[in-house]
Amino acid sequence: MRIQPRQEILDIWRATVRSCWQNGEWHWGGRSGTNSISDAEQLLTLLLPAAKVPALSLDDPDRADDEVIEALSPIGGAIEIPRRLVGVMIDYFTRYTDDTGTPTFSGGSYLAPLDGGPELTDEQRSLDIVDSFAVSVTLALATIGFVKVYRNSTQRRDLLAQLDALDEMASTRLTAAMVGLLRSFSTFVFTATDEYGLRLCDMINQDELPRRELVASLREQLRETMASLRSVIIGSGRVTEDLDNSEMLFECGWSWGVIAGAEEVPTTESIGLQREGSAENAPYLYFTVIAMDAIEDLNSERTRLLGLLNEEQQRLSRALLLRWELTRTYWATVATFGNRRRWPIEDIPWRTTDGDRTDYYTLQATSLAVKGLVAGGRGDEELGRIASVLVELAQRARITRRASPDEPALFVHAPGKRVTLNAERSKPIMTWNVNEYSTVLLQRATTVAGLLSNARRRSELLELADEVWDHLLLRRIPDGRHRGLWDHAGGAFPELAPKPDAPSWYLTERVVQGLVNAGQLLWERPFPRAGRLATYAQDLIDEAEYLFDRELMRGTFAGEAMQRSMRSIRASLRRAQLVVDERPGTAAALAHTLLLLLNDIATGQQKASEGI
């Protein structure tokens, strides 16, 4: 992999500080102004790598890396950097808490009116949105983890008081965001013969089955999911229709905001008012994937090891995990339904039940399909099919193929995909713009590569990740105060978009996510075992052990110098045996060296016996 995640993240940190830190103060806002989502993304550009990559941690001044300190040096030295970041975090949580102490989760300037429609009212822009719930979960967890570690590094009473206040604000926002996600979950039930059912059947019927047989087969595969939906008893998403009817189908996932009529979630935490919902009771693929990723953060190893959730948050997390599992099972089943000809996800573009279709939806569906394949214990063959879909999506979006001017495929990059947000009874009220195609593709490529056990397939997918990264490098803002940040789509596709005068934190934070994924792949995922190479390495080790044991029997290692050689050979043999499964090439190289050394010893003994 040509991407250098650590160095690239440090470069982005330098650019972020240059853009945001002016005259000793943090300045909020980017291309879309300020709102609860954009400002969280701006802050996560620094905090996300610090939370997930140990070598880039900022919470312990004594362990801070010299390059990290240099990258953030305009903020201060090793002591000042975490202290001043505490002030920035407190500022964020204060800005998005209203006068009653209730955290706010509005989309604000990220929301846009319908084509030809009136400007949005302040009330519409203030509506809670799932993207804000999700990003707040990630930010709050990063903040609470930061506070837990940093508190052990200071004795200053004023700073400890700040940390206590920050921890309380982050915990309150985390609980409120989890409640918001519980009230935004949707189970949309319809018949197999209405317009939604017909579109779903058309999408998944790759084997051209009779409709009745198709519906029966799909319901059979989703039988456990339908039974488990009855366990959804708090928040939204409760099933009231009769799913036992053989003609009923459904979708589940997250709507764009709190569902209209959603009940309040009982909680012992003081999170303020739970606002009335206004979103339609139907899942949106974009918001479903965003919510699923946030729930994974809630259940990550880091969250468990650091004990980031209190008892009430653990209860809410279990309720969200149930919805996560139901959603994963549903979408993975639909995306990979049937197997004789091709999967629905391989029939690009993905078509939703409301009649929309786009390559971007296929890309999003790959995330849910992979989660299901991993949970089902599926191997390289199935994951390889997803990898092939990613390769084709990169070609169709002209990331790995030359583009023609004004080609429609380029619009997925700029202006992006406009998602219509509907109120109750599917009434369109506003739009949400999505232009993260390239960054999502980078994340998916590195994620799937890390799951593959075939070294060749993994290398091919990492080559795709490198090509996507080369594309993203062309889209960095080239000059000015914001240079090194994103997004200048015209850098990759001339005349597609003018050079911006401010960064998009929406895209910059997603670039950082992709780099963190790539870093975790290198740091946490072992290199796939290459079967033939491992067998070859084991054969070399076996021969080296045999020759070593034979020399011991001959008494070759007499004398102090030879005893040292014996201990060195034995240690190297033990090391080769330990790493042969994860690093067969390294084991083979060690065995080669030992075989040459043992040959020299045997040759020396032979010459000595012959008097040469």
List its traits:
SCO2524-like; SCO2524 family protein; 9 strands; 21 helices; 612 residues; mainly alpha
Q: What is the topological layout?
A:
Elements: H1 5-20, E1 21-22, E2 25-26, H2 36-52, H3 66-71, H4 80-95, E3 111-112, H5 122-125, H6 130-150, H7 157-182, E4 185-191, H8 195-204, H9 211-221, H10 223-228, E5 248-254, H11 285-298, H12 301-306, H13 311-335, E6 350-351, E7 357-358, H14 359-375, H15 380-396, E8 417-423, E9 427-434, H16 437-451, H17 455-474, H18 505-524, H19 531-553, H20 560-579, H21 584-609
Antiparallel strand pairs: 1-2, 3-9, 4-5, 6-7, 8-9
Helix pairs in contact: 1-2, 1-18, 2-4, 2-6, 2-18, 4-7, 6-7, 6-11, 7-13, 11-13, 13-14, 14-15, 14-16, 15-16, 15-17, 16-17, 16-18, 19-20, 19-21, 20-21
- What value does the Rg take, in angstroms? 28 Å
Q: What kind of sheet is the major sheet?
A: 3 strands, antiparallel
What's the count of strands? Answer: 9
The helix/strand order is HEEHHHEHHHEHHHEHHHEEHHEEHHHHHH
Please indicate the percent range of residues in DSSP E strands (runs of 2 or more): 5-15%
The outline comes out as globular
Question: Which percent range fits the helix content?
Answer: 40-55%
Count of discrete alpha- or pi-helical segments spanning 4 or more residues:
21
Structural class: mainly alpha
Mean pLDDT comes to 91
Distance between the termini: 52 Å
Main sheet strand line-up: 3-9-8
Weakly predicted, low-confidence segments: none
